[in-house]
Every structure is written in C-alpha cells, then in structure tokens.
Amino acid sequence: MVKNLSLGTGRRKTAVARVYLREGSGAVSVNGKSVDDYFNNPSFVYVVRQPLAVTASEGKFDIVINVKGGGPSGQAGACRHGLARALVEYDAGNLTSLRANGFLTRDSRMVERKKYGQRGARRRFQFSKR
Questions:
Q1: 20: nearest Cα among 79, 74, 104
Q2: C-alpha–C-alpha distance, residues 48 and 128, integer Å
Q3: Pairing with 20, which of 11, 60, 90, 111 sits 20 to 30 Å away (CA)?
Q4: At 74, phi and psi to the nearest 5?
C-alpha cells in the first residue's frame, strides 16, 4: 500500500485533475503514463512541472495525476493547479512562492456560450443589405 503525502484538486476550463504526492524519486505520471508520453508537446510538460521548479521539489516526490475533461491545454493547466495545491497541503512554506507565481489562482476563463440567432458566441450570420 502506497501512502499519499498530500492531495490537490486542480481545475482549468472543463478539465479536472486529482494530484497525489507520494514519497519517491521524482516520477510524474498522468493517467498511468509518463508525463512526457501523455503530453507530447514539451510546453505542456513544462507547464505541469512549473510548481516543482518554483518550490525546488524536483526529485523529492513521485506524483500521480488523474485528469479528465477538456483538451491538452486545459488538462496541463489543471495539473499545474492541482500540483501547486498538493505542495501547499504538504508544506505551508510553499504558499508564498506558489502564490507569487500565480499557480494557486483558479483560471476562471471558460468558453463563452453560443447565443440564439447567431452562428457562435459572438459571430453573427452574414448580413445582406439587399
């Protein structure tokens, strides 16, 4: 039985990530795959690892992430948010550095809903003068 040191829930757009911190050597797995295999774009991998770099926690923990909903960008942001929350739960001393970098703030931007009588959220149907 592997013991979780702390747990953090992260959200971004429609993605939700549950992040578990465990004792280990620094392996990060997302939905059972390595973070590099799951997010094949290196910029998303960088986004996920940002809280570890800020708190100098790389190599201290094994991180297990379950994420669902949304696309790759939203999922990466949700993972970062959840990891930051888990690091604060583990050690409250991380709070100031993570807060200063904006990793604990839930990004509230969502897709604007489509309106009736229009083609999209803001796009109108083509206007014909004659």
A1: 79
A2: 48
A3: 111
A4: -65, -40
Q: How many helices (H) and strands (E) does the chain have?
A: 4, 5
End-to-end CA distance of the chain: 73
Residue corresponding to tokens 């970098």: 101
Which single residue is written with the structure tokens 């309106």? 115
Count the neighbouring beta carbons within 10 Å of the beta carbon of residue 42. 9
Encode pLDDT of 67-84 as tens digits. 999 999 999 999 999 999
Token pair, residue 73, equals: 């960008």
Asked if 21 contacts 57 with a C-beta cutoff of 8 angstroms, the reply is no
Closest CA to 38 of 68, 18, 4: 68
What pLDDT is stored for residue 2 in this prediction?
A: 84
Any idea of the CA torsion for 107, 79, 31, 61, to the nearest 10 degrees?
-160
Identify which of 33, 40, 19, 10 has the alpha carbon closest to the alpha carbon of residue 104: 10
**Whole-number Å distance between alpha carbons of 101 and 98:** 5
